[in-house]
Amino acid sequence: MVTKPYFYNASLFTFLTTLWLLLAIPKQSY
Which residues cross the membrane (predicted)? Predict the structure, then answer.
């Protein structure tokens, strides 16, 4: 029960980080 919210937050954080990288990398290429 305790690890479930942590796993959800970790996966959400990873998703946001991946999304940010996908948006940040094209900006650096210009």
Answer: 6-25
